[in-house]
Amino acid sequence: MRMITEIRAVVLCSLLAWMIAGCDQDVLYATSFTEVATERAKLIDGIESYQSTEEAKHQFQKWEVIEESGLAPGDKRPPFNIYVVAINNYSHLDYSGKLHLKFFNNRLVEARFYPSSFEKYVERLKENDKLTFNITDKSAGTPEALAAPYTRIWIYNQPHLDPQGQNRYVGWRDARLEKEETLWIKRYS
What share of the chain is helix, strand, coil (3-state, %, to 5)? Predict the structure, then answer.
């Protein structure tokens, strides 16, 4: 009996040391990849994360599916379905453009707005929402802001990759769902 207690103590100490040393704690994180959180994050214009495609369809008269992918039938891994739609002639803060909505396992995770007047729109957004964008170690060179408690907002403007400026956008993402999607990829891809 004493031997079992000592082994348990060694295992627990090793696990604790491993966690303190900066292990990948995601290994210990259990998730179904389909749960819907009670508290939703605010994305663009009051649109909230975790909406299903059916909920979101009630807000928009028309959209175009631009990506629909998932696992093959019979795949034993947890679900991984991506569904992205485009809404043309969307207006936010008096600027028109195209809005893309991304769903991960039928939960709205992200919105991207491609305004027609990118620089003017970004300035209006900063002023209107009182946002300060910064480049951090984690932002991969892209200016981002955080809106409590779960919304990450970023500005995508890469002139060296997009000389005509056609793919410049502002994105909003629920950080919890972003972490879940990343975790699925790390574990199962």
Answer: 30, 30, 40
